[in-house]
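lol forgot to send this yesterday, sorry. struct tokens for the thing we talked abt
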């Protein structure tokens, strides 16, 4: 039964991404405002800003919100303004607010944007190509008001980097597949687009301003529907994050992701938590089944055959998704990290339970 339920998740949900053909709608060329929040990120922006400012798109601007920075962030942006007329600086000096994280500066950046359609990313991210804006923006129309993109982790050598990349990849399989199933539940703030109208009609982040995280997943969870949300996963439309490859940052983010997930709708909480439960329970059942079947070779072979079917379906599902998300190098590690996260997820869940949500 456990195997059947897991296979059902792969076939009924995740295959939606694995076998999906990316839509290529006629470009609308709507004006776009790229919004970036930065806090003491001059050392990052000096490398990433030119990539954002040199996008191949007819009409766009870049809005950088310097969030109480005490380094050269603001001056750097001002220097770039001498070369780029489509660059705007929002300099935030006051810290008189109880709003945690980047929600307040991000809200100011969206408010300051000249255009209706905003595209969000972080100072540490690089667009995968100069077609990033064009590919993300092409989905906007009278119905689609939200576009979910993929932000991958910069690839480096080492097991820890591979683990973090796999976790981001696995997360993307889920939120892309759920969106295709008309149940959008989250996006990632490093590559996410929506309209100012949908942001302000829903009062922005007002309902979660007391939380440090949630500017992407909780907001999308609240405003996205099966009709107003689209996905974009072409390689040229990715952003590449370097900061996310730091273990301590990844663990903190993962802890708070699980924390904020408790605020999702009941249906989404059940589907996501049950899937995570199955990941862990599968290996418990596998271990006990093998142990109690050691005296019966035929029964043991049948059981192992059933479990091999599960792994085969998973490899097809994840392998095809990895090709779409330009993460083919992760395919050899599918089984290994499936085992690792079957143990890691319950531990992180317990940590998030006792960690204060602030």
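and heres what i got for the seq, position by position
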């Amino acid at each position: 039964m456990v195997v059947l339920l897991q296979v059902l998740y792969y076939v009924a949900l995740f295959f939606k991404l694995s076998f999906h053909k990316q839509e290529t709608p006629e470009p609308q060329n709507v004006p776009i405002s790229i919004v970036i929040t930065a806090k003491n990120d001059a050392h990052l922006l000096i490398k990433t800003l030119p990539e954002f400012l040199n996008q191949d798109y007819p009409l766009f601007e870049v809005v950088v919100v310097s969030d109480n920075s005490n380094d050269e962030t603001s001056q750097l942006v001002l220097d770039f303004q001498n070369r780029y007329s489509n660059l705007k600086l929002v300099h935030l000096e006051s810290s008189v607010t109880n709003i945690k994280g980047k929600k307040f500066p991000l809200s100011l950046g969206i408010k300051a944007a000249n255009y209706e359609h905003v595209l969000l990313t972080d100072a540490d991210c690089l667009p995968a190509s100069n077609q990033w804006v064009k590919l993300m923006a092409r989905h906007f129309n009278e119905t689609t008001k939200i576009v979910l993109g993929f932000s991958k982790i910069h690839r480096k050598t080492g097991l820890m980097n591979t683990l973090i990349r796999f976790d981001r990849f696995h997360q993307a399989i889920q939120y892309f597949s759920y969106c295709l199933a008309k149940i959008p539940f989250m996006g990632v703030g490093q590559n996410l687009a929506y309209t100012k109208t949908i942001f302000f009609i829903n009062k922005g982040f007002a309902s979660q301003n007391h939380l440090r995280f949630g500017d992407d997943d909780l907001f999308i969870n609240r405003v996205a529907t099966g009709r107003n949300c689209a996905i974009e996963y072409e390689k040229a439309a990715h952003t590449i994050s370097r900061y996310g490859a730091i273990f301590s940052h990844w663990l903190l983010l993962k802890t708070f992701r699980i924390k904020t997930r408790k605020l999702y709708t009941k249906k989404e909480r059940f589907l996501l938590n049950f899937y995570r439960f199955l990941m862990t329970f599968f290996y418990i059942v596998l271990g006990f089944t093998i142990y109690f079947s050691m005296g019966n070779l035929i029964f043991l072979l049948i059981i192992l055959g059933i479990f091999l079917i599960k792994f085969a379906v998973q490899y097809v599902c994840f392998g095809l998704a990895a090709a779409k998300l330009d993460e083919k190098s992760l395919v050899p590690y599918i089984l290994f990290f499936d085992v690792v996260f079957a143990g890691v997820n319950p531990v992180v869940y317990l940590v998030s339970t006792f960690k204060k949500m602030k």
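DSSP finds twelve helices and ten strands in the chain. anyway ping me if u want another try
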